[in-house]
Design goal:
The chain is of the alpha/beta class and 707 residues long. Helices cover 47% and strands 12% of the residues. The protein contains 27 helices and 19 strands. Helix 10 packs antiparallel against helix 11. It is globular, with a radius of gyration of 25 Å.
Length: 707
């Protein structure tokens, strides 16, 4: 190691090149702490020095469809070749020209130094004898672990346990909030879907008679107690919510979970150094966690949040950065847990708060959702009825670019998908950042600790901060550029709303499936990624190919934003479908992509599938259904894939997950699990090949059903 003017270099064992130690540089390039960076508000370059997207949304959609035919799957022209969101295209150029760190440029930087061992799952840092890496010449780690165990253990420990615990944690917070709302009616949220509360209380075996608040406390307590159940006692929520046929299989395979938090502890204990050395057991543990992830995480939190905020209602809405207003106080609510945000919107809709904003020189105050939290707010019936709610902004890739508009006065964020560089952008572009949950902290960022008993007071504090930020923006005459693009979309789809639209029965959908007008269903869910060939374009291209072949799409997560800004969530997209799906969509006045909302609303998609299977009197693994995560990103997505495998479905993922270092792991996930009556994994990065995989699987399931 050599020291030269505070520049320390060390040999990189992967590539053989020199790697600079960030800690030794003595400048702020390697830190996200705003205090280490000088204030560069006034050095901002002009916004208009960029290539604009087409001005009309019709021209944008035309360009998007031409673009994906030839320009989006290679490395050439990255990242503009993969960015199909017109607003993000403009803002990327603006940010890149200023030399600001941003998600697409960081991807290219990281691509040059990636480790093949990590990409294959063949690196381990669990014990002090490591880190260890495995290849053909060195086939075992120091402890003796082989490639198969290392890959399987990494899969469980690094992905599935974290994803499962995060979803169950989210459901825990929703249960905590329901209990607080019932015990403290003036705190903020209240029971908005009484029918749902009573229905699920009955299913849980609880009394649904008497005061609704008492029922709510009992139901929330039942949920919380089940999460804390030991792993050796069967989960009550799984018993009540999961398909009966699946439960029989899970018991036979020893996959029926106990309490979710205990299941995570069991799985992580198995991952200890020198403990479990059975790769197949690790993978079955992942499937068991997937069951807990669904019924004590995703589905549980969907129920709880809808009791508090109202069930989805099919309606039209708007999406993208053009919804920002230069002369309005603009609040963005970001994350996955829209509990505080719902109260903020309700308070902001009051005349007194609109008047306060006007006294600060604004035309008013508006709240917009972002990432999955925004998709949930977009879908809830009661949110859409609040005057201060202005719509949905975008996907997680757009966060830095959104703040770079200079129009965001306050960015409130809770659990999940708030990226670490945002404090730098907040400082440069004058945004006040507020953490609203103890699970997330950012440097130089305000904290309003989530307290469901005082949500209305906390919302008022947030609104005061937003107005102060707007006043400061106005006083400093900061430059603002808002890309003008807005997409119309149809939202509010869920098990209940879709069934209601069909007349209260699944028979019309089943008839369309039997007649072949709808060949099958694909869920296109999860994240977007910055990778080559992705960036939203992979989702768009796959979806276009599927609807052309009469396959109905359910979307959830950041994929829903892609569907919205490409026009596929607009009923007009029926014209782009095959003849059968086109007929159905036009008859019902719906788009070929039904947005269920957030990634966590995958829980409601499984409920839709469960009810269709029950109507057909078959098990869930017999449905003509494919689960697709064409641009999955993080740990929750992997846990969700394990949920789908537990329910017996083909799960497509891209990019390639870090399991390729073991042929045992690959064979188990792509073949063996299916022989056990579970689902299986398939990996494909080509959009066109992916479409054919979906079609082939759906046609196979149709033949097996005799339709």
């Amino acid at each position: 190691m050599k020291e030269d003017n505070k520049l320390i270099k060390s040999s990189d064992p992967v590539s053989g090149s020199d790697v600079e130690s960030i800690a030794s540089r003595g400048d702020a390039s390697g830190t996200n702490h705003p205090g280490e960076h000088f204030d560069i508000h006034h050095n901002s370059k002009k916004y208009f020095d960029i290539q604009k997207s087409p001005s009309s949304i019709e021209a944008v959609h035309k360009w998007q469809r031409e673009h994906i035919q030839v320009h989006d799957q290679s490395k050439d022209g990255f990242p503009l070749n993969v960015i199909v969101d017109p607003a993000m295209r403009e803002m990327y150029q603006h940010v890149h020209a200023q030399g600001l760190t941003n998600v697409f440029d960081r991807f290219e930087q990281q691509e040059k130094i990636r480790c093949n061992f990590c990409q294959q799952g063949l690196s381990c840092q669990l014990c002090a004898n490591g880190p260890c890496r495995i290849n053909a010449k060195v086939p075992r780690g120091n402890c003796g672990v082989d490639a198969h165990v290392m890959v399987a253990r990494n899969f469980v420990y690094r992905h599935v346990t974290i994803g499962t615990s995060a979803n169950i944690f989210h459901a825990q917070q929703a249960a905590r909030t329901l209990k607080a709302a019932a015990e403290h009616p003036q705190s903020g949220l209240k029971i908005r879907d009484r029918e749902k509360l009573l229905h699920y209380a009955n299913l849980a075996g609880l009394s649904s008679h008497g005061d609704d608040n008492q029922v709510a406390v009992a139901f929330a307590t039942w949920v919380l107690e089940d999460m804390g159940r030991p792993y050796w006692e069967e989960s009550k929520m799984t018993q009540v919510f999961a398909p009966a046929k699946r439960q029989q299989l899970w018991r036979k395979l020893n996959l029926f979970p106990g309490g979710g938090f205990s299941e995570v502890a069991l799985a992580q204990t198995k991952c200890m150094t020198n403990l479990n050395a059975d790769p197949v057991d690790f993978l079955l543990t992942a499937v068991r966690l997937g069951i807990a992830n669904e019924y004590q995480g995703l589905f549980a939190l969907d129920i709880l949040q809808e009791i508090l905020m109202g069930t989805q209602k099919i309606r039209t809405a708007r999406q993208n950065m053009g919804l920002l207003k230069k002369n309005m106080v603009n609040i963005i609510t970001n994350g996955h847990m829209p509990l505080t945000a719902h109260v903020v919107i309700e308070q902001a809709s009051r005349t007194e708060w609109q008047e306060k904003a006007k006294q600060a020189g604004a035309e008013g105050i508006q709240v917009l959702g972002h990432v999955c939290e925004g998709q949930q707010l977009l879908n809830y019936q009661h949110t859409g009825e609040m005057s201060a709610y202005a719509g949905q902004e975008g996907e997680w890739l757009s966060e830095e670019y959104l703040l770079a508009t200079g129009a965001v006065d306050l960015f409130m964020f809770d659990y999940n998908c708030t990226i670490p560089t945002l404090p730098l952008y907040a400082k440069r572009f004058g945004t006040t950042m507020v953490s609203t949950h103890e699970v997330i902290r950012m440097p130089d960022t305000a904290v309003i600790e989530f307290n469901p008993q005082e949500m209305r007071k906390q919302a008022d504090t947030i609104l005061d901060m937003a107005i102060a930020a707007y006043r400061k923006r106005r006083q400093e005459s900061r430059e603002v550029y808002i890309p003008p693009h807005i997409s119309d979309c149809m939202v509010g789809f869920s098990t209940e709303s879709v069934k209601a639209a069909l007349g209260g029965s699944w028979k019309p959908l089943i008839d369309a499936l039997v007649a072949g007008k709808i060949r099958g269903i694909a869920t296109i869910v999860g994240c977007t990624t910055a990778r080559y060939g992705q960036g939203g374009s992979n989702i768009f291209r796959i979806t276009k190919g599927l609807i052309k072949n009469d396959i109905l799409i359910l979307s959830g997560g950041c994929t829903s934003s892609v569907m919205q800004y490409t026009g596929l969530a607009d009923p007009k997209a029926a014209e782009e479908c095959g003849p059968g799906l086109k007929e159905i969509c036009k008859a019902l006045g719906i788009p070929p992509v039904l947005s269920y909302g957030a990634c966590v609303d995958i829980g409601k998609m499984t409920q839709t599938a469960k009810e269709i299977a029950e109507a057909l009197e078959v098990d869930t693994n017999q449905l003509p259904l494919v689960i697709g995560a064409p641009e999955y990103l993080e740990q929750k997505a992997v846990a969700d894939a394990c949920t789908a495998i537990a329910l017996g479905w083909l799960v497509h993922v891209a990019p390639v997950p870090s399991v390729t270092g073991s042929d045992v792991v690959i064979k188990t996930l792509t073949e063996t699990t299916e022989t056990l009556g579970l689902g299986k994994l398939t990996v494909e990065t080509s959009a066109d090949k992916t479409v054919q995989i979906y079609i082939d699987h759906i046609e196979k399931k149709r033949q097996e059903l005799g339709i």
